[in-house]
Amino acid sequence: MSATAAARLRKELSLLATDPPPGICAWPVGDSLTHLQAQVEGPDDTPYARGIFLLDILVPDSYPFEPPKVRFVTPIYHPNIDSGGRICLDTLKMRPAGSWTPSINIPTLLTTIRTLIAHPNGDDGLMPEIVS
Amino acid sequence: MFRDDGGPTAAVRGSALLPCNATCTEYCGFIEALGRQFRIKIRLKSPGGQVDAEAFACDAELSQILTSAGALPALRLRLAQTPDPASFVAELQDVLQRLLRAAPQSAPAPAAYYSRLVAEIDKVGWEHLVTISERLSHLQLRVSDAAGRHHVIGVTMPPDYPRTAPTCVADLPAPFALQWRAGQSSLADVLGQFRAALAPFLPLWEVLDDLDAHTHVLEPEHRSRAIAQRRVALAPHCSLSLALNPLAPRAAPEVRFLGAQASLAPFKAAVRCALWAQASLAPFKAAFAANAPRTWDPSRLLRANLEAALGAPLPSPATTLREDISGDCGICYQYRLADASGGGGSGGSSGAVPDRVCDNARCRRPYHPACLLAWLQGLPESRTSFGTTFGTCPYCSEDISATS
């Protein structure tokens, strides 16, 4: 992993440890900086409230120029998340298909995912049967 | 019958190596090079076969010669390719002879040298001595100037001291040239000349110390008395690069503005007005200067003049935090870019600082030029002409460009 990525990840992890966004907890798996896990609490006033969802995050060597790969480990019934835990979210994809930029970091990305849980995107469903 | 054909039971030909186990896979003994002998121990992968270069061991003296020359990794590589112990020994001897020839003769100096050195240090006073090397050939001496600043001079004694002048390394803006009269000069003269060499720069250090104490100095990262250059923070993401004349530190320095053009414009106009009015800078504009306000006053320190010219005090560590003045790069989250080229050159400036700032007044995100370029080049919609890549800011999506 590049020095840029390692330095930035260390900073993000200390940010996650000292000042985590609401309902989000993330930590490195073992000594590796490239493999992280996160827990996202289901947002209140949604069917997911009181649920805790485990996510697996793989950070590429070229981070932050490329987005991390995020996957739900906990099964979730959601129109934008398939049975394998894959997430349909444009911030998780490179341009031009997606909208990843280095201005997004892991705390903001997890917040975006938490918002996606609360506000499913019906136009872009991975699971057509759930959308209806 | 004793065979001497390099066979498994024999000693290794051309060397003083003897087997030290029954299967003849381990040898120890001596290797000779340029009249010096070193004890070594080798292990063979099979009897009479290749030497295991990883298991090669030697005495401390040889190990020191090999490691100090940095030859060990290359040597291991070469030794790993030798087919048998005899060629291993020949190869090692060859390398060793070359290293010993290249290494300087390090015979201890005659006793008279030491007694003379101690007498000279006695004369200048032991309180001036900071460090001295193991062989008493290199020492550092310290003196204090009128303002109580400490200055250290490194003195390396030649083997035929005092016939040859010692080499001196001093932290001065100008090179320190030692005047040496063989046989008559001593360390006292070195210190005397060093003190004299310090004198012209006292005003410079006064100006620089004032800057260092009362402003956010972004560069150089590691201060040195030799550097007459400072980059001081002006406002968030704006800074002022000052190159002082070491011998006339109170005159107007060479000023360069760094940061977003829009936020710098008022500062630039103010400073330009102040410099323009300085008669010594533009004598042919004397008529104009006489009318313009003479704000640059050489009797004041540089910081006072700058603040007068800018019409506002420079941000000081007493009132602002460094983080508020200059943010980390929006891409790598670092202030100093982790420098792959290891550029820790003069002035100790290691790695670039984020001085490419988004021109959007509401964004003002700083980037390292290299980080921004890497991002823009990866964008499908970016375009490059004449080495400049145009794209959009990762934060505000305004147009931004980076030059390679």
UniProtKB/TrEMBL annotation, chain A:
Family annotation (CDD domains): UBCc_UBE2T
Origin superkingdom: Eukaryota
GO MF entry, a single one: transferase activity
Keyword entries, A-Z: ATP-binding, Nucleotide-binding, Transferase, Ubl conjugation pathway
InterPro entries xref list: Ub_conjugating_enzyme, UBC, UBQ-conjugating_AS, UBQ-conjugating_enzyme/RWD
Positions annotated as active site in the UniProt record: C88
Domain UBC core: 4-132
Entry's transmembrane regions: none
Signal peptide positions (record): none
SUPFAM superfamilies: UBC-like
UniProt family annotation: Belongs to the ubiquitin-conjugating enzyme family.
PANTHER family linked to this entry: UBIQUITIN-CONJUGATING ENZYME E2
Protein name: UBC37-like protein, E2
Organism this protein belongs to: Tribonema minus
Phylogenetic placement of the source organism: Eukaryota, Sar, Stramenopiles, Ochrophyta, PX clade
Automatic annotation (TrEMBL), chain B:
Residues of the Fanconi anemia complex subunit FancL WD-repeat containing domain: 17-98
Pfam families attached to this UniProt entry: FANCL_C, FANCL_d1, FANCL_d2, FANCL_d3
Segments forming domain FANCL UBC-like: 112-199, 203-272
Family matches, as InterPro entries: Fancl, FANCL_C, FANCL_d2, FANCL_d3, FANCL_d3_sf, FancL_WD-rpt_cont_dom, UBQ-conjugating_enzyme/RWD, Znf_RING/FYVE/PHD
Domain FANCL C-terminal: 328-401
Top-rank taxon: Eukaryota
GO CC annotation, single: Fanconi anaemia nuclear complex
GO terms classed as biological process: interstrand cross-link repair; protein monoubiquitination
One GO MF term attached to the UniProt entry: ubiquitin protein ligase activity
Protein name (Swiss-Prot/TrEMBL): WD-repeat region-domain-containing protein
Record organism: Tribonema minus
High-level lineage: Eukaryota, Sar, Stramenopiles, Ochrophyta, PX clade
